[in-house]
Amino acid sequence: MHTTLQECQDALDAARAQARGLTHTLAATLALMYPHAAYLVLRRDPRSGELHLDSLRTAGGGTLCSFGELDLLPELTDPVLRMAWGQTDLRDPQALLQLLRELDRLGPRSEGSPTPRRNRPTRTRAPRRCCASWSTSTRPSRRATTGK
Questions:
Q1: Could you tell me what percent of the chain has a pLDDT over 70?
Q2: CA–CA–CA angle 112, 72, 61 (5° rounding)
């Protein structure tokens, strides 16, 4: 089967649009699970480029919970969101991480991207942190992204 460049671009654009929609579903889900959290903080390994879960932060940048300390996330009780996730159990942090990695693999993202671009130069070999916010009234503080 041959595919034209335009057909491929259309498919990629459609996949990115679906990923943006799924990102909104994820934000709504985390907002219900953690009503006092405003940001999901991720780390990107500087060598492998892999994403890792770091923490959930408050609007002021305080750590609400660290993923290294969690066995399971809270139960999702909203029936509409529960149905949107199908068989995926988002109480499992590894399922959440797998989803975020799959979204990340779609490539370049639009504005408001929760992950930094891979081709940006880094000054250190320390893991890079990035934030995804679901609060419409807040912006990531320096403390939220650096932990300082």
A1: 72
A2: 40
Q: Looking at the DSSP assignment, which residues form a beta bridge with residue 129?
A: 43
Q: What percent of the chain has pLDDT over 90?
A: 48
Closest alpha carbon to 89 in 33, 35, 18: 33
Instruction: Give the phi and the psi of residue 39 in degrees, each rounded to 5.
Output: -140, 140
Domain span at residue 99?
A: 11-116+125-138
For residue 40, what are its two tokens?
Answer: 């999901």
Q: Are 44 and 128 in contact (CB under 8 A)?
A: yes
Q: How many domains does the chain have?
A: 1
120-133 burial code (b ≥16 CB/10 A, e <16): eeeeeeebbbbbbb
Q: Does some domain include residue 75?
A: yes
Residue 62 included in any domain: yes
